[in-house]
Amino acid sequence: MKATLQVALAAAFVVVATPVLADDPIGVTATEIKVGGIFPYGGPASSLGLIGRAVTAYVKQVNDAGGINHRKVNYISYDDAYSPPKAVEHARKLIENDEVAFMFSQLGTPGNTATAKYLTAKKVPTLGIISGSAKFTNVKEFPLTTTSLVSFDTEGKIYAKYLLSTLPNGKYGILYQNDDLGKDYVKAFQSVLKEDFEKKVTAVAYEITSPTIESQIVALRSANVDALFVAGTPKFAAQAIRKTAELGWKPTIMLNYPSSSVGGTLKPAGLDVSVGVVAGTVLKDPTDSRWDDDQGIKDYKEFLAKYMPGADISDTNYLVGYTQGILLEKIIELCGNDLSRENIIKQAKSLKALVLPTLMPGITVTTTEASNMNFTQMQLQRWTGSRWEQVSDVLRADSE
C-alpha cells in the first residue's frame, strides 16, 4: 500500500512539474518551437531576401539569451527565388516534413498567393507576411493570416492624396509591376482620383522578369507627367531613378515602401541623383544622426555588429527583418505556455497599441479579429542626398 502511494505521488509530481501544452501542439516541445519562413534569397527580388536573413539572425540573438519562455525558437526558412511553385514546394516541406507550429514573415505577394489555400486548409497560422496585397486583409478569406506591410491599397491612397495636395494641377505617371503588387497601387490611385484618373494618370507596366524598364521610363517622359510613382521592387526602382537622371528629366519621384531602402535602392541608383525622392516609411532611419541616442536604434546597431557583421546599415531591409524578429518574439511571449495554433493566431490578432522600438514615433501595432494588419500608418519622407527628412505627420489612408 505504501509503495502504491509513493508511485501515485511521484506520478502526480511529474504531472505538476511538466508543462501542459494545449492540444498537443504541432512543432512544440518543452524546449523548442519550430517556425517556418519562405524568402527570395535568390532570383529577381533577392535584395528583399535580406529581410529573412535578419529575422534568422534575430532569432539567434533570442536563443543566445535563453529563448522565449524557456524555449528556443527553431526558425527554418527556405529560398523560393520569388517563384510561386517553389514557394508551394517549400510550404509543404515546412508543414509536412519539418512540422513547424506556424509560418512567419513569408515574403512576396506571388508566393503568399500560391501557398495561402494550402496553409489555410492545413489550419496553419501565417503571421506577419511581407506582402501589402489588399486581398490578404480580407479576414474572412484569410482567417489565419496577419500582414506586416502597410497594404498597397492604403499606401497608394496616401501617395495619391499627397500628389493632389502638392501637385493638384499636375499629371502623374505610374510605373508598376504587372502583378498584384503593382495593380493594387493603380487601383488605389483610381479610388482617390475617380473620374479624373484617366485624364491625370498614365500607367505603364513591366514584368518582374524584364531586364530593364528603360523603354517604360521613356514612354512616361513622353507623356509629360509631372510626378512619377514607382510601384515595384528595389531593382527596378533604382533603374527608374537612374534612367530618369540620364534623360535629364526631373519629375517628382515617389517610391513604394518596399523599394525605399537607401542601401537597396538609392545607393544603386546614385545618392546624388536620388535627391528629392519621396517615400513612405514606418521605421526610423538608422543612418540618421537624430536617432543616435535612441535606445531602439542603438540596440539595432549592436545587433548588426554582433550577428550580421559587414551588413550595410543603410539597407533598411535588415531593419525590417530585425523589427519582424521583435514582433515574432512578442507574439510567442504573449502565448505563454499555450502554443496551440488556436492561441497563436488569437494572440497575433490581439495586439493593442504595441510599440516596437524601431518604429517611427506615433506608429504602433494594433490588431483585432476584424483587422489583421500589423501596420496601417506611415510617414512620408524626402531624400536630401544624405538623409531622409519628414514631410508629413503620421498618415492613414483615411487621413485628410
Summarize the structure.
With 400 residues, the protein is of the alpha/beta class.
What can you see in these coordinates?
- The structure is a single chain.
- With 400 residues, the chain is α/β, with parallel strands linked by helices.
- The protein is built from 13 helices and twelve strands.
- The protein folds into two domains: 19-149 and 296-348, 3-Layer(aba) Sandwich (Rossmann fold); 153-281 and 379-390, Response regulator (Rossmann fold, 3-Layer(aba) Sandwich), CATH 3.40.50.2300.
- The protein has helices at 2-17, 49-64, 84-97, 109-121, 152-166, 180-193, 197-200, 214-222, 234-246, 262-269, 295-307, 317-335, 341-348, and strands at residues 32-39, 72-79, 102-104, 126-129, 145-147, 172-177, 201-206, 227-231, 252-255, 278-281, 379-383, 388-390.
- The strands form two sheets. The protein has a seven-stranded mixed β-sheet with strand order 7-6-8-9-10-11-12, with helices on both faces. Strands 2-1-3-4-5 form a five-stranded parallel β-sheet, sandwiched between helices.
- Helix 12 (317-335) packs across helix 13 (341-348).
SSE blueprint:
Layout: H1 2-17, E1 32-39, H2 49-64, E2 72-79, H3 84-97, E3 102-104, H4 109-121, E4 126-129, E5 145-147, H5 152-166, E6 172-177, H6 180-193, H7 197-200, E7 201-206, H8 214-222, E8 227-231, H9 234-246, E9 252-255, H10 262-269, E10 278-281, H11 295-307, H12 317-335, H13 341-348, E11 379-383, E12 388-390
Helix pairs in contact: 2-12, 3-4, 5-6, 8-9, 9-10, 12-13
